[in-house]
Amino acid sequence: MDNLLFTETKNVMGICKITMGFISQTLCFFALITCTYASDTLPIFKANSSQGYIVRVYSDLNPIVLNRIHQWQLSIERNNKPVSDANVTLTGGMPNHDHGLPTQPVVTSESEPGRYIVDGIRFHMPGLWQIIINISETEPLDTATIEFKL
After folding, report:
1. Which region holds residue 77: left if phi is over 0, alpha if psi is between -120 and 50, else beta?
2. What would be the CATH architecture of the domain defined by 43-149?
């Protein structure tokens, strides 16, 4: 009887170890997901246009580092509503050096209303950068400009 009780206790302890291992791995997985999308909580840049667009820029690199291609998400609103199905493009460069971007970033999709995915962003040297976000719906083209130093 004592041997059976010992065996049962050992089996229960083994199950508890497996369960605790699973719970620990699950918690780590959710913590990793939370950290991965933490850059989504606060924009790295915000700009307003003359026609009332508000553009918030979220980056998968925060802080931005040199010579690394990365992705931005642009959240575009007007009158407190997401701007959907707009034509959005990016241009820019270094105004003090009179050259453009080293890559040609492209808006590849609208992941949800007013949320545009931009692929191919890279900055290759320190200094003042200027990004011009061109937005057009049915109205004339409008721009929101972001300036920052790396």
Report:
1. beta
2. Sandwich (2.60)
